[in-house]
Design goal:
The chain is mainly alpha-helical. Helices cover about 50% and strands about 0% of the residues. The chain has helices at about 40-50, 55-80, 85-100, 110-115.
Length: about 120
């Protein structure tokens, strides 16, 4: 047996075990190739050149802002500032960066909103 084709052993089969191809088999002809029309090509090009999702770009900007704020917070903690002073300065720094980057507020009830309106208060 070779590659799962043929007999395991030719013993008792009345053959020598040699596998040949079937010369009587008629193969189907190749089907006609359907080429894409100009309209289909334009649709495919338009689909491939999509604009980036604005929400994803905004999210990336917010992540960069938060990273800078976390770095500032860690630096201030190492220098020995009080927790209240750190929160106040980081919130101010965050607002300044958000305005500079042109990113709106988080809108998801993040730390900044909670500090402004107080914990547990409705919007």
């Amino acid at each position: 047996m070779y590659n799962g084709i043929g007999l395991n052993t030719p013993r008792g089969s009345g053959t020598n075990g040699y596998v040949t191809r079937n010369w009587a088999h008629i193969r189907g002809r190749k089907e006609k190739v359907n080429y894409k029309t100009e309209e289909e090509m334009k649709k495919l090009d338009a689909a491939m050149s999509k604009k980036p999702n604005q929400e994803i770009l905004d999210h990336e900007r917010k992540r960069k802002v938060e990273l800078k704020c976390m770095e500032m917070q860690e630096l201030m903690e190492e220098q020995g500032y009080s927790e209240e002073e750190i929160e106040r300065k980081v919130a101010t720094f965050r607002r300044m960066l958000m305005e500079k980057e042109g990113v709106g507020s988080t809108g998801t009830g993040g730390k900044e909103e909670e500090v402004e309106r107080g914990p547990g208060r409705p919007r």
